[in-house]
Amino acid sequence: VDVVRFLLEQHADPNAKAHCGATALHFAAEAGHLEIVRELVKWKSAMMVNGHGMTPLKVAAESCKADVVELLLAHADCDRKSRIEALELLGASFANDRENYDIMKTYHYLYLAMLERYRDSENLLEKDILPQIEAYGNRTECRTPQELESIRQDRDALHMEGLIVRERIL
Fold first, then answer.
1. 3-state DSSP call for residue 16?
2. 51-80 residue pLDDT tens
3. C-alpha dihedral over 50, 55, 56, 57, to 10 degrees?
4. C-alpha span between 26 and 7 (Å, rounded)
5. Is the pTM of this model over 0.90?
6. According to the CATH classification, is domain 1-77 in 1.25.40.20?
7. Are the C-beta atoms of 63 and 32 separated by less than 8 Å?
């Protein structure tokens, strides 16, 4: 953190991009370096899209870096759809990452995203539901909090839900 702070104090551009289009915030978010992310946010590092169409928020979510996602959601200026997709992707990633597999966190973050979708009853944010895919057991993605609640105790269904969410978002 000290090196990052020093460079920023020396007027290094917090939004400078590597050849892949990623910024320091992308790299820190993906690696889960919470204090560096905090410092970059403090210095107004922007939520830019990299060469793969991913923001630092999505990169952190795909990498199961829940603390970074929560920090960015608390401090970054992002729209409602971006917030929801980050929570969904984080939940889906916990269902489909061998090293970070945690089905309880899968449900938790998918549920938070669903609550955010339904927070404003006059402005619901509907999902773009994908057609059924045989590889995912011909399941369709949960559309309501009640549908999600119905699979809460079904590890296989939550795993498939995560795969479908990743397919839609990524």
1. coil
2. 999 999 999 999 999 999 999 999 878 899
3. -170
4. 17
5. yes
6. yes
7. yes
Angle 143-148-151 (CA atoms, 0-180°, nearest 5)? 135
**SS3 category, 50:** coil
What lies within 8 Å, CB to CB, of 63 at 6+ separation is 29, 30, 31, 32, 93
Q: CATH 1.25.40.20: which residues of the chain?
A: 1-77
Give me the long-range contacts of 40-44 (CB less than 8 A, separation at least 24).
40/4, 40/8, 40/14, 41/71, 41/72, 41/75, 41/76, 43/8, 43/14, 44/14
Residue type at position 37: V
CB-neighbour burial class of residue 134 (10 A; exposed 0-12, middle 13-18, buried 19+): exposed
